[in-house]
Amino acid sequence: MNKKRWLALGIAVFLLVFSIGFRFMSSLFSTDLESLFAMSDQQYQQEVIQEGAGNKIAVVELDGTIQDVSTSSILSSAGYNHDRFLKKLEHVGEDNSVSGIILRVNTPGGGVVESDEIHDKIVGIKEEYNKPVYVSMGNTAASGGYYVAAPADKIVAHPATLTGSIGVIMQSYNVSELADNLGVDMNTIKSGEFKDIMSPTREMTDEERNILQTMIDDMYDDFVQVIVDGRDMSESEVRDLGDGRVYTGRQAAENGLVDDLGDLEETAAIMQEDQDWSNARVVKYNSGYGWNAYINGKVQNMFRSEDAKLSAIQELLQQTDGPRAMYLYSK
């Protein structure tokens, strides 16, 4: 490449960087920086959803599929963040100004480990801080969504909520016939007989299926025990209900999986009545909107394009490569 082409390339790069910087600075100077920096030290923002002068009820939202995916990318701040959610729960538990907690659940479930970590965090908050924890179910609170709800002092669902789906699932594709038709061969070098268990390029053997079924049954036993302990139900009752099907909120109330029917506002009213509180203040805890969140949002807006979306999809596929056992309701 001659000097003129190098010069032209350098100018193009400079103009690109200048354009991005100009757009960023323009949006920066159009922002109320004083209020932005004032918020920067606040880890969580409190949004009042019901005024009151009495006890404070904190609402924490669990929204989206429960999975611990990488957040290293500057473009990937949206959606459920497992680590951030656990820290928010812990923060609300430690907050001496909070008298009770409502977990607003709207999720089809997700990872077995992640669901169990949330469950254990709720149990720990109840034991360590002696605060009532209620669950308000949204549109969907199924499988892992029900798993995390089970230890709550009371569960309230909307009549049309989809809940239940008690069970464990693990899936993979078998593309061996398609590969044969396309003339594609897979060469596998492995250290043990079962190292490529659930490989999508060959049929699963009966022995492999038995190994995996044993794992799933063990995880299902844990799910059943969580409900037995949290809902004070017999194991036979839970197993009869836990065949993987979903229930509406109304059906779940009839079979004992939830305690009452209502929305978030009614859940707060039920908590106040149960705890003999009056004129409680209901506050939703949101993640902070300080300087880091602002910068991240601006970068996302500047780079939001089809290439960015494809990169996000590629990152998700890389993180979820391989079958996983899930407490997940999938349609």
UniProtKB/TrEMBL annotation:
NCBIfam families: SppA_dom
Presence of the UniProt keyword Hydrolase in the record: yes
Pfam (any one): Peptidase_S49
Organism (species): Lentibacillus persicus
Residues annotated as domain Peptidase S49: 128-275
Family note: Belongs to the peptidase S49 family.
Example GO BP: proteolysis
PANTHER family: PEPTIDASE S49, SIGNAL PEPTIDE PEPTIDASE SPPA-RELATED
CDD domains, per database record: S49_Sppa_N_C
Record InterPro entries: ClpP/crotonase-like_dom_sf, Pept_S49_SppA, Peptidase_S49, S49_SppA_C
Protein name: Protease-4
Alphabetized UniProt keyword annotations: Hydrolase, Protease, Serine protease
